């Protein structure tokens, strides 16, 4: 059985609000290169971030259904995945030559290469759900969700500065916070896609939610060490 680390990487991480935007990508490249040398395999699912938001808001007044708006979001995720894939290739990482367009295709490509980079697949969810499904398909014991918040909070900390953060939650508790497993609107995001939480609970797969801007935290989660962030595990494992 393959040992594969699966992670959803939020699109916001590619366009940080900092001067030296390429620094994060260089750190990601070093981390993945080191871990591939150590024998790890990676399935990385990249979010749409700014181009997804921009494309969806441009088309929204003209397109009235989420199915078609979702397709614009998917194209943006694939654009971001291409940026990462090309940068990895340039850095000598043995990454799959194509961006898989389904979880099945990703599983097959991972048999040939140590790294695949992909974006979204079909309308109706976000890349968090793609990553969770990939993690389930390759029998990974967890799925890392790298985003741009420190931890899961009970409320949006930008709106309520007194919001409470969590180090650990059950799938049910996280589902309560993010809401029922439905895709509400193209481009609308919550800390974790509720569809992904539902799938992770069903398959009893652990989610590690980390601030992906801090590459050390990503490394700790990859290595299975204690990490700063929120660990989502079933009731029994707590
Ligand atoms: P993202 O996965 O980027 O969602 O997909 P997000 O919650 O905005 O995540 P961040 O900000 O990158 O972390 C963007 C949009 O693309 C469509 C959806 O409309 C989603 O909201 N999408 C993405 C799909 O329809 N299917 C997919 O598999 C992926």
Describe the protein.
- The chain is of the alpha/beta class.
- It has one domain: Acetylglutamate kinase-like (Carbamate kinase, 3-Layer(aba) Sandwich).
- It contains eight helices and nine strands.
- Strand 1, helix 1 and strand 2 (41-46) form a beta-alpha-beta unit.
- Helix 5 runs parallel beside helix 7.
- The longest helix has 25 residues, at 66-90.
- It binds uridine 5'-triphosphate.
- Uridine 5'-triphosphate binds at residues 10-12, 47-49, 52, 70, 73-74, 77, 120-127, 130, 147, 186-187, 189.
- Uridine 5'-triphosphate binds next to helix 2, helix 3 and helix 5.
Give keywords:
single chain, 238 residues, alpha/beta, Carbamate kinase, two-stranded antiparallel sheet, 9 strands, 42% helix, binds uridine 5'-triphosphate
Sequence-ordered SSE layout with sheet pairings:
Elements: E1 4-9, H1 22-37, E2 41-46, H2 49-59, H3 66-90, H4 103-112, E3 115-118, H5 127-137, E4 142-147, E5 152-153, E6 165-166, E7 168-169, H6 171-178, H7 194-202, E8 206-211, H8 215-223, E9 230-232
Parallel strand pairs: 1-2, 1-4, 2-3, 4-8, 7-9
Antiparallel strand pairs: 5-6, 8-9
Helix pairs in contact: 2-3, 4-5, 5-7, 6-7
Bound molecules: uridine 5'-triphosphate.
The radius of gyration over CA amounts to 17 Å
Amino- and carboxy-terminal Cα gap:
26 Å
Q: What is the chain-wise order of helices and strands?
A: EHEHHHEHEEEEHHEHE
Total strand segments = 9
> Largest sheet, order of strands side by side?
3-2-1-4-8-9-7
Shape: globular
Mean pLDDT: 94
Domains, number? 1
**Uncertain segments of ≥5 residues (pLDDT<50)?**
none
- Can you list the ligands bound to this structure? uridine 5'-triphosphate
Q: Please indicate the percent range of residues in DSSP E strands (runs of 2 or more).
A: 15-25%
């Amino acid at each position: 059985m393959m040992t594969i680390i699966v992670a959803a990487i939020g699109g916001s991480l590619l366009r940080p609000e900092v001067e030296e935007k390429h620094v994060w990508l260089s750190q990601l490249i070093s981390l993945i290169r080191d871990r591939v040398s150590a024998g790890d395999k990676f399935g990385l699912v990249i979010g749409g971030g700014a181009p997804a938001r921009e494309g969806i808001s441009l088309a929204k007044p003209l397109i009235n259904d989420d199915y078609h708006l979702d397709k614009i979001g998917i194209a943006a995720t694939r654009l971001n995945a291409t940026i990462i894939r090309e940068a990895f290739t340039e850095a000598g990482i043995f990454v799959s030559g194509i961006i898989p367009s389904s979880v099945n295709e990703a599983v097959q490509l991972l048999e040939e290469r140590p790294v695949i980079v992909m974006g979204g697949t079909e309308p109706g969810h976000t890349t968090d759900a793609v990553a969770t499904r990939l993690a389930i398909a390759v029998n990974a014991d967890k799925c890392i969700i790298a985003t741009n918040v420190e931890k899961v909070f009970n409320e949006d900390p930008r709106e309520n500065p007194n919001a409470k953060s969590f180090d650990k939650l059950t799938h049910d508790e996280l589902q309560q916070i993010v809401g029922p497993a439905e895709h509400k609107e193209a481009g609308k995001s919550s800390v974790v896609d509720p569809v992904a939480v539902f799938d992770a609970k069903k398959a009893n797969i652990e989610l590690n939610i980390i601030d992906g801007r801090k590459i050390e935290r990503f490394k700790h989660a990859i290595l299975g060490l204690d990490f700063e962030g929120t660990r989502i595990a079933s009731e029994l494992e707590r």
